[in-house]
Amino acid sequence: MKTSILLASAALGLLASPALALPMTPADYVATAGASDLYERTSSQIVLETTSDPKVREFATMMLSAHRDSTADVKAAAAKSKVKAGPPMLTPTQAEMVAQLKAETGAARDATYIAQQKAAHGQALNVQKAYAADGTAMPLKLAAGRIVPVVEHHIMMLMAM
């Protein structure tokens, strides 16, 4: 389990580097933010099916709501920016992380979920900060700026778990 968590964390770290090397296009930002939100909702729903840990349950429930809200915010900003927001799709790494989470049970699933959330939120924070700073579509840039403190709050909560 620990090896696969480290692998997932490393993979997310590698994904972050190229995305931040070049400014993201508005369409790339919308797709990346959509994939991130989809992963957060999907993984949270999986862990909610089995967790008996009240802290994990509370966090996962909050993830469903928070990432539904950020998806709506990005979609509205995309419409204002005249950027087509197609249905979100998990990246191959995110799909692998979901499969890994599904394969775990009990406390191991909870531990994998928390480790994945830490890595995914670090990646999400990098993307949101980068687009808030360097984005070219003002409505999307403002949305990213609104999302940054939310992701930072999630990271603080995760560090306390």
Walk me through this protein's architecture.
The protein has six helices and no strands. It is mostly helical and 161 residues long. α1 (2-21) packs antiparallel against α4. Mean pLDDT is 88; it is low at 1-20.
The helix/strand class is mainly alpha
Helical content (DSSP H or I, runs of 4+):
over 70%
| Largest sheet, strands/sense/barrel | none
Report how far apart the termini are: 18 Å
What value does the Rg take, in angstroms?
15 Å
Global shape: elongated
* Poorly predicted sequence stretches spanning 5 or more consecutive residues: 1-20
Q: How many helical elements?
A: 6
The count of DSSP E runs of length 2 or more, i.e. the number of strands, is 0
Work out the strand percent.
under 5%
**For the residues shown, what is the average pLDDT?**
88
Order of secondary-structure elements? HHHHHH
